[in-house]
């Protein structure tokens, strides 16, 4: 629940008053027309928002996990105990009204939510918070605040230590959507941590959703949200659909009229994964190689006198069988001697002597290279190890170690 101004009348009395809230939302004439949309979204999940039948996560003692020392070198420090320079009042051009007391940021009830002046997209966010002590109130009316990613997706902050509320509204919940996997809460007054990984939703140029947001949360070092995909921004009493807001938004902290405290807030902006361009996905330029030449390379290869890799012919190309695999892989000729691997950045370059007889192969995979001898099965007994040196790295083929990584 976000916009306290909008719901202020209800909030004070709504500690767990789900039914009252639901009616108020349904009767709101402003919401007409959106109801059907919301219902359609609701059908995507078995659970209704704030469904009290939804099982509560099991409590787990979190140990010492989570508390961070110094922020990483590339972090954007949002609050280090000294001031609120990185923050302002939410949706207004006004300073943040919260207090900094002894290096700790205190929610000032009625002061309004605060948000970062800067906007962020994909982030790793660390923050520490403490629920009021002694504890006061029940359900949602007990140490309630919240962390909003891109201004839209709330990770609930609530005193959920030995305290009941609906599952999708307790500490560590993606509010109203995903309960935490465990209740990792520490007692009121104790410092707790959220380490959040957030990937923003992706849209096409027409604003159509391509990929929902993704959220991972560790609460006190315990995984409570594992790459979950919210089905829209956080909203109260109904679900809303995604809207393209330009891929960046502020980090916001909720004022829910409770004196929740925060400290040590920083984030790291996450880079995009590199996408391959056309030059990276270009088809392998296969060249025709005669059956006679292909047959020349057939046989076993190994670093010593034992074959660990087997090359066979299959029509117009070769295949290679590694000891760690049960099925052979295609080798596509890109010249008379060099063969490409279609799914791996790897190449086999066969070596032949002056008489045209195969002597070995140079195998490169990624940045590892190795030379292997051609093992002539007819003279197996006589063959001596003739490793041609150059065994850089730990690349295949070497042993039965798994080739996946
Ligand atoms: Mg909240």
Task: Please describe what this structure looks like.
- The protein has four helices and 25 strands.
- The strands form five sheets. Strands 2, 4, 5, 7, 11, 14, 15 and 17 form an eight-stranded antiparallel sheet that branches.
- A hairpin with a 7-residue loop joins strand 20 and strand 21.
- It has two domains: 256 residues, Exo-inulinase, domain 1 (Jelly Rolls), CATH 2.60.120; 96 residues, Beta Barrel (Lipocalin), CATH 2.40.128.50.
- The N terminus and C terminus are likely disordered.
- It is mostly beta strands.
- The site of magnesium ion has 8 residues, from strand 8 and strand 9.
Give the SSE layout.
Elements lengths: L3 H8 L6 H10 L7 H8 L15 E2 L16 E4 L7 E3 L9 E3 L2 E3 L7 E3 L6 E8 L14 E5 L3 E5 L24 E2 L8 E8 L2 E2 L5 E3 L2 E6 L2 E7 L23 E2 L7 E9 L21 H7 L1 E4 L6 E6 L2 E5 L7 E5 L4 E3 L5 E7 L5 E8 L2 E8 L30
Parallel strand pairs: 1-10
Antiparallel strand pairs: 2-17, 3-6, 4-5, 5-17, 6-16, 7-11, 7-17, 8-9, 8-16, 11-14, 12-13, 14-15, 18-19, 18-25, 19-20, 20-21, 21-22, 22-23, 23-24, 24-25
This protein binds magnesium ion.
The site of magnesium ion has 8 residues, from β8 and β9.
């Amino acid at each position: 629940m976000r916009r306290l101004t909008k719901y202020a009348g209800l909030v004070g009395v709504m500690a767990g008053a789900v039914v009252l809230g639901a009616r108020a939302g349904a009767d709101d004439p402003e919401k007409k027309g959106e109801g059907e949309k919301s219902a359609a979204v609701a059908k995507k999940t078995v659970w209704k928002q704030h469904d009290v039948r939804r099982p509560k996560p099991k409590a787990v003692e979190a140990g010492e996990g989570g508390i961070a020392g110094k922020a990483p070198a590339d972090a954007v420090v949002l609050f280090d105990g000294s001031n609120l320079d990185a923050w302002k009042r939410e949706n207004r051009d006004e300073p943040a009204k919260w207090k900094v007391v002894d290096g700790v940021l205190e929610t000032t009830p009625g002061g309004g939510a605060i948000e970062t002046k800067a906007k962020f997209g994909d982030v790793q966010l660390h923050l520490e918070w403490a629920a009021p002590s002694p504890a006061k109130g029940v359900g949602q009316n007990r140490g309630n605040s919240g962390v909003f990613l891109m201004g839209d997706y709330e990770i609930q902050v609530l005193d959920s230590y030995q305290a009941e509320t609906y599952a999708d509204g307790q500490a560590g919940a993606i509010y109203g959507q995903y309960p935490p996997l465990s209740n990792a809460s520490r007692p009121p007054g104790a410092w707790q941590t959220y380490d959040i990984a957030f990937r923003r939703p992706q849209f096409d140029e027409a604003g159509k959703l391509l990929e929902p947001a993704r959220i991972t949360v560790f609460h006190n070092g315990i995984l409570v949200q594992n790459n979950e995909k919210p089905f829209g921004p956080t909203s109260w009493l109904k679900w809303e659909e995604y809207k393209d807001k330009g891929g960046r938004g502020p980090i916001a902290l909720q004022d829910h009229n409770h004196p929740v405290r925060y400290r040590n807030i920083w984030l790291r902006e996450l880079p995009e994964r590199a996408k391959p361009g056309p030059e990276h996905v270009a088809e392998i330029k296969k060249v025709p190689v005669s059956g006679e030449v292909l047959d020349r390379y057939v046989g076993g290869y190994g670093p010593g006198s034992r074959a660990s890799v087997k090359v066979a012919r299959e029509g117009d190309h070769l295949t290679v069988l590694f000891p760690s695999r049960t099925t052979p892989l295609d080798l596509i000729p890109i010249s008379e001697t060099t063969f490409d691997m279609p799914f791996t950045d790897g190449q086999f370059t066969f070596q032949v002597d002056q008489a045209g007889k195969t002597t070995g192969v140079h195998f490169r995979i990624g940045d590892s290279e190795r030379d292997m001898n051609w093992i002539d099965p007819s003279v197996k007994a006589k063959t001596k190890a003739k490793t041609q040196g150059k065994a850089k790295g730990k690349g295949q083929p070497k042993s039965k170690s798994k080739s996946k990584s």
